[in-house]
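STRUCTURE:
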């Protein structure tokens, strides 16, 4: 799933672990000592990278924490997201902490399967919890300014970081007063065909859904024909003549969805321009589809070699060196929760917006190839849901948002067909009409659509409430 979560990384920093480093633009890298395993199997220590923005901090103010999730940490995360606005509203300090095994936060010297064994949800959350404990009890050891002891903490984030935020609230309610979760997923499936259905829903809203689905059917008819001449002519039409059929299908899906995470603003919807605009009357559906893909490849400036290498389903690369966020995210999918992006089964009677060649086997074979016996694939999904998602029903103080056109909507709190999570005290689910992925957590902009502004306002009001009460966390099932 990582390739669909890739958000822009603003600036790379040159950093030396174990030191506090100042660079030109006044970004300061801080390091917090962690254990490889919080549960006693490996006591080695490592340094976790974090950044702080104390521009608005005043004594007694709260701590707002985020994580870049599956991206490397930059000052973007402490200065250019809604986190800094929350800090501004409450005289708070903004902190962003990199996740273990991403960016410069390396518990072990490589990303081999035996190292990644420590990439568990429990360990990842325990890292954040030990930072927060230190920040509350001994703030001068982690902050460059005098922060008041026992400050309240709100965890916030978008995409994967939204999951971290809700899990921090559900797992460590005494440490985290509330969570702002912009497009968290709260339900896992082995085969997540709801993902491509959300893309199709978006196309339907824009008016080109059925023609796009027709093109996908036409292409699959050729790809499954066993007629090599016909297949070669299709590859030629899409400008991807040297790829295998499998890689071709995967690249075509990626390219067609390449704007699916872009912001929808008052200036327009990038998916309308990148996809539907090509489906004009009189052009055969398959030709329109090819034009969508060719335009995406051009827009991204991808060479044939890059197209091959970006294909997660066919990683020939078995390097285990650090700084491969895709590999860590792949490991997480393999071992935590699956949610593999597969084609909607024909038997469902629903239209499909990616090729039927996108199957579960493809993903699982890659898990086996990379991580071998370390991976227990299929059995994980139910137990993961039970362990990490069921408790959310009784967790208070969470603000869940999802755009009505968010491609991750099918796994979110509010898929098109209704709510998955019950909300309870001081929690709220906001479906942001007409918005895409995680737009509410971005810094405000003059081109924001009204529903996004409204969602931020609702979130701001809830955060105020969470911080105002300073009450002990009470589980719903403990009440009465
Ligand atoms: C903190 O955030 C403010 C507001 O976005 C920004 O102007 C400032 O440069 C940031 N400082 C750091 C050190 O990132
Ligand atoms: C994976 O990519 C290689 C080229 O790098 C290709 O020869 C092979 O057929 C591909 N495998 C699949 C399953 O598509």
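SEQUENCE:
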């Amino acid at each position: 799933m990582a390739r669909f979560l890739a958000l822009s990384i603003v600036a790379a920093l040159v950093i030396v672990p174990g030191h506090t480093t100042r660079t030109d633009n006044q970004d300061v890298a801080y390091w917090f000592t962690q254990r490889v395993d919080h549960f006693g199997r490996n006591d080695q220590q490592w340094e976790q990278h974090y950044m702080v923005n104390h521009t608005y901090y005043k004594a007694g103010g709260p701590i707002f924490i985020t994580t870049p999730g599956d991206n490397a940490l930059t000052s973007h995360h402490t200065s250019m997201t809604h986190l800094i606005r929350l800090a501004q509203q409450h005289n708070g300090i903004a902190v962003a902490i990199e996740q273990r095994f991403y960016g410069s936060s390396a518990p072990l010297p490589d990303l081999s399967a035996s190292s990644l064994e420590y990439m568990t949800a429990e360990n990842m959350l325990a890292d954040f919890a030990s930072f927060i404990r230190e920040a509350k009890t001994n703030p001068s050891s982690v902050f460059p300014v005098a922060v008041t002891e026992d400050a309240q903490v709100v965890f916030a984030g978008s995409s994967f970081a939204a999951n971290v935020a809700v899990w921090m609230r559900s797992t460590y309610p005494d440490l985290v007063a509330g969570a702002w979760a912009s497009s968290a997923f709260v339900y896992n499936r082995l085969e997540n065909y709801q993902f491509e259905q959300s893309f199709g829903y978006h196309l339907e809203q824009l008016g080109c859904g059925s023609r796009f689905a027709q093109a996908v059917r036409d292409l699959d008819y050729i790809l499954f024909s066993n007629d090599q001449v016909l297949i070669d002519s299709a590859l030629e039409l899409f400008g991807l003549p040297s790829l295998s059929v499998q890689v071709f299908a995967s690249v075509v899906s990626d390219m067609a969805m390449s704007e699916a995470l872009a912001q929808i603003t008052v200036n327009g919807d990038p998916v309308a321009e990148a996809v539907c605009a090509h489906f004009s009357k009189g052009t055969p559906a398959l030709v329109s589809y090819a034009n969508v893909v060719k335009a995406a490849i051009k827009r991204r400036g991808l060479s044939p070699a890059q197209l091959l290498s970006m294909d997660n389903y066919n990683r020939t690369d078995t390097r285990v060196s650090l700084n491969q966020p895709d590999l860590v995210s792949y490991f997480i999918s393999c071992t935590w929760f699956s949610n593999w992006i597969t084609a909607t089964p024909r038997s469902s009677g629903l239209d499909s917006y990616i090729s039927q060649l996108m199957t579960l086997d493809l993903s699982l074979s890659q898990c086996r190839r990379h991580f071998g016996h370390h991976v227990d694939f299929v059995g994980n999904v139910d137990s993961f849901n039970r362990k990490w998602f069921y408790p959310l029903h009784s967790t208070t103080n969470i603000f869940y948002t999802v755009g009505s056109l968010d491609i991750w909507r099918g796994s979110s709190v509010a898929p098109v067909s209704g709510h998955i999570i019950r909300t309870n005290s001081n929690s709220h689910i906001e479906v942001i009409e007409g918005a895409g992925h995680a737009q509410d957590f971005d810094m405000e902009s003059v081109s924001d659509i009204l529903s996004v502004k409204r969602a931020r306002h609702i979130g701001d009001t809830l955060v105020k409430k969470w911080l105002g009460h300073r009450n002990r966390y009470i589980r719903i099932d403990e009440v009465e």
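REMARK: Residues 263 and 325 are 23 Å apart (CA to CA).
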